[in-house]
Design brief:
alpha+beta, Sortase, Chain: A, 2 domains, 8-stranded mixed β-barrel, 3 helices, globular
Amino acid sequence: MPERPRVDAVGFVVDALRTRPWARRVLSGISVGLLLLGLGLLAYPFATNIYQDRLQARLDRQLASPALEQAYRERRVGTGDSLTRLRIPALGVDVVVVEGTSASALRAGAGHYPETPLPCEQGNVAIAGHRTTYGKPFANIDRLKAGDVVVLETPIGTCTYAISRAPFIVEPNDFSVIDPTRDRELTLTSCHPKGSASHRIIIRAVYAHDGGA
């Protein structure tokens, strides 16, 4: 039985590019598309950081406003509005946290889970934050260790929490970490590893005292 000739894929492509103008146009279009995609992927984190920086300036002003203080006291802070300032001295983090953890709210960099207590109140206060985009306030929370402090400055007062254990990892759908607790605690959550949503990194802290660090 005669042997079937093998198709030289590379030769076919080269021949098509040499003899068919449309093939050259297609290849050029693909090359340009891949280039634009690559540039977009590189520029996206930079663009989100610029956006978050401008948004934080507005949120900072809102946090200091009498209207926001009144809304906070009446527990009617809207999704995306300033809720508290979060500072982590060990990491140099200083970010205004908004109410809500929707995609739009988290463009501020960090957001409060609305089903959890307000900052400094009894129970498990939970806050989510970005690690690689939108200012990446939680970029290095994996470096936190027991004894490091987190300060929450609200429109009506300030309190300090102390990290109680090393950071730990959970599945992305494990929401038990924000379950209610009897004592005053703080839970910080973010994606893990950086650039992936395959897991969540969790920081657990316990109330230390009123006032700053």
